[in-house]
Amino acid sequence: MSDSLRRSAARVLLASAALVGTTAALVAVLGGLLHRQAHAVRGVIGKPLGERAPLAAEVYKRKYGDPVDLLLLGDSIAAGLGAATPDETLGAQLAKRLAKKTRRTVRLRSAAHVGSETSMVRAQLASLPAGYRADVAVVVVGGNDVTHRVRTADSVQHLREVLEPLLAAGTEVVVGTCPDLGALPALPQPLRALASRSSRQLAAAQLDLVTGLGGHAVSLAEVVGPFFITQPDDMFAVDRFHPSGAGYRRTAKAMLPSVLAALGHEHPLPTGHYPPAVGRQDV
Fold this sequence. Notes:
Blueprint: H1 3-44, E1 59-60, E2 68-74, H2 76-79, H3 90-102, E3 106-110, H4 121-126, E4 136-140, H5 143-147, H6 152-168, E5 172-176, H7 191-213, E6 216-218, H8 220-223, H9 225-230, H10 232-235, H11 245-262, E7 273-274
Parallel strand pairs: 2-3, 2-4, 4-5, 5-6
Antiparallel strand pairs: 1-3, 6-7
Helix pairs in contact: 3-11, 6-7
């Protein structure tokens, strides 16, 4: 090899080494920034709201009779954190709307818990009274999996372990898939962009699992995400992370068609609602 060729090769190697070093440094800096942002956000989210959601009533429209048992499972959204009163929680809003549409009494039970990851929902099931069986269970979970960097595959497996016993017991299931965390004003960039991508990936995986097992899935990113993006002052509570009472009303209204469909009420489903793919699997 000539001297000129050797010098050219050396320059290429040095440039490559410099590029690798620069890239590694940028990755390290970005990783540190994301870690600091996530830590700061976790220290703020929910703090103005406390650790407990308002406790909704247990029975709605008792005078109607022929009761429907409605179960809420999942995280702080399912629990209703951010609602100012019990009647504003997701469970209460769904129960009232369900009773009005079906002209049946709705008995609401919520085992949802603030801060839950999907792996914790099995304990919510275990906390229910022996012999209890809901007619329909509404599950909203996944946001905490994203913020705590739980692998999508692990999160979906935990969800399977929740849904399979519910379906085997004869309970219809409606899952509100993970919201798009990119809509959250509380998240700074670049954390917001990363959270958006991760939450959408998880939501897609949840949808495939739920409909494949024979449940109903509602894409919260599709059915209510645009309202939270365009009307953040109304839709978010004071922490700018959890829904407000108005946000829960909008979410309940958006989820109701799939809850009704799960209970056998035939009607066209709006965009963002996904019925069972091929009927319920043996679980």
